[in-house]
Write a structure and sequence with these properties.
The protein has 10 helices and no strands. The protein is mostly helical and about 230 residues long. The protein has a single domain, classed as MetI-like (MetI-like fold), CATH 1.10.3720.10.
């Protein structure tokens, strides 16, 4: 495996590791963006209004239980006659990754807003803040650590699961695993698995640094005291 990774010819070209990493990140980024557009408004609404918590929690758990590989095969069969281009494979892959990423984003968003100190919300209401201003000026900043934690979890799940795109004849690091299995090239398979793990670790570190920069130091200290308690 080490020899395979150290071979410069495996890193360049259209099928090289760098190109596969770029494709892997493209699938992950697109799915994560769609999941945030869907999940954040739902989570914030449920947390702010306290309505539909049980329904959303049950729906999120149901999405987590879906078999990703079976789902992508089913969607490829369904979308194959609809699209004549690579969209027949790209759309199912993005749907599966989005379905996987939505639950942690939704649950973290509404849990974060629900966890905001009611006294802080009452104080903002007493100052004349309207509901939307309370949400975006008080609740979201206070809930930001949990919200980012949900986005971070969704990102890691999407990165690790984006290998299934290779099952739909697409690229990404899963290509190394699928092609290596077809050729009985176990060094290539192991290299693909290691690269996915390293990519996930790098992204997790980057997300952690982003959280430290974006979240107010005062909120970080408060969350840290709660966790130690």
């Amino acid at each position: 495996m080490i020899d395979w990774l150290l071979d410069p010819s495996h890193w360049t070209g259209d099928d090289g590791v760098m190109a596969l990493i770029a494709q892997h990140l493209a699938y992950t980024g697109a799915a994560l963006l769609i999941a945030m557009v869907i999940g954040l408004p739902i989570g914030l609404y449920v947390g702010h209004t306290r309505r539909g918590t049980v329904l959303v929690a049950g729906f999120a758990n149901a999405l987590r239980a879906l078999p990703t590989l079976g789902l992508i095969v089913l969607l490829v069969i369904l979308f194959g006659p609809v699209f004549a281009s690579d969209l027949a494979f790209i759309v199912p892959s993005l749907i599966v990754l989005t379905v996987l990423a939505v639950p942690p984003i939704v649950t973290a968003a509404y849990a974060g807003v629900l966890a905001v100190d009611p006294a802080v919300v009452d104080a903002a209401r007493g100052m004349g803040y309207r509901p939307m201003k309370i949400l975006f000026s008080v609740e979201v900043p206070c809930a930001l650590p949990l919200i980012l934690s949900g986005v971070r979890s969704a990102t890691l799940q999407a990165v690790s699961t984006a290998t299934i795109a290779a099952y739909a004849s697409l690229g990404g690091l899963g290509r190394l695993i699928i092609d290596g299995r077809a050729q009985n090239d176990y060094a290539q398979m192991a290299a693909g698995a290691v690269l996915v793990g390293v990519l996930a670790l790098v992204i997790d570190l980057a997300m952690g640094l982003l959280s430290a920069v974006v979240v107010s130091p005062g909120i970080n200290r408060r969350v840290s005291r709660r966790s130690h308690a």
